[in-house]
Amino acid sequence: MRLLSSLLLAGGLLALGPASAQMAQSAAATNTADSLAIRKIYDEALLRGQSYENLRYLCEQIGPRLAGSAGAAKAVEWGKLTMEKAGCYDRVYLQECQVPHWVRGAKEKALVFGNKGKGLPLAVCALGGSVATPGSKPLRAGVIEVKSLAELKALPDAAVRGKFVFFNRPFNDAYIEQGRAYGEAGDQRRAGPAEAGRRGAVGALVRSLTSARDNYPHTGTTQYGDTPTQVPGAALSTLGADQLSQLLQADPKLEVELTMSCQTLPDVTSYNVVGEIKGATHPEQIVTVGGHLDSWDLAQGAHDDGTGVVQSMEALRLLKAAGLRPERTVRTVLFMNEENGTRGGEKYAQLAQQNHETHLAAIESDGGGFTPRGFTAETAPANLRKVAAWQPLLAPYLAGQLTPGHAGTDVEPLVAAVHPTALFGYKCDSQRYFDIHHTAADTFDKVNRRELELGGAAMASLIYLLGKYGL
């Protein structure tokens, strides 16, 4: 069969004529060379990959690393030292940025009091950036349940004033991609406490952003903006939210008692960690690959975004181990403060603009370290078509999907600053991600070694193709 295919190919090339045949032979040789290069990348990742052990150290020896914390400072030191030891970078350096410093304080408590007078506990955690209950003491009030910000807006002031607003809109489980459900339900977490405060409520209780039915509350940033009255905002677990909703139906006059002691301290100096390899042919063109080094404070931040961090570091090590020197300059960036401020991404973009840099592309991994699927892309249609031509090279490794879509929060500031030709987001199986997202369950044991290493290889392969062919 192989001989027959060769004869047919030879006959086809002759039929094209000498010039066309030469071009076809050249294209075939290029595809073969690229296939072999990518195979080397995957062999290295699967047989000698280092992402998993790097992640083990980050999670188990450093652990939670919310911006401004001691854990975040240790993570910066670890990231710089690990990239220096990798031996694949021409230089490794830090970019200073000022980051917010919010602390959770003592463990939050919530109790439901009905007409029987006995307090029933609810699984609860403070939303990132929230204020404490007054004096960090218990705050007790009635509850009004709504499914959306629009429903809150339609209520009369008297129905809201002096109560907790309970935002109880669940994920839309009809969506195949859970990220879409997260995006739609997320406004109640980001803006719910602010809107509750504007209406005279004493606080906000928000259903966790997940389809999972469990007792893990999911934290995440809430934003007060210019709200004159800031009230505490807390996330309820999905089981807790269901329980509260059912109790309210039976007793609309029940009360919730919430205790939180979180606070925002003065900004702290922190850093992005950057490792750079100068391009052999086009050093003035830059390809950035990164994940965010910070995590929420409830757990180890394994999938969010420890996996993205170690994959971004591993991608460049894989290139060197496969004997592939990038033709364009490539940077690994471990961004600081994605979770509650994006100061690291903004600083990286600001310095890129200040230094008049040309950014060909940026790749972000911030969707977990699950089985690879491919990449989302933000770029012009012509560029998307060019990248689509590489799908056959990535498809054998289950990383060939290419769809228009958001690339990532940390690379987004580059658009206004230096107008990169394309942004890419590493895309993996998302079905389990929001089960543990922003919870105490986001731990190292939830990460599969092979899935993680395959993701780093997929990113390295895209970097290789971008570096070789540009856009």
Automatic annotation (TrEMBL):
Tagged with keyword Manganese: no
Main location: endoplasmic reticulum
One record GO biological process: proteolysis
Classification via Gene3D superfamilies: 3.50.30.30, Zn peptidases
Family annotation (InterPro entries): CPQ, Peptidase_M28
Span of domain Peptidase M28: 272-460
This protein's name: Carboxypeptidase Q
Originating species: Hymenobacter polaris
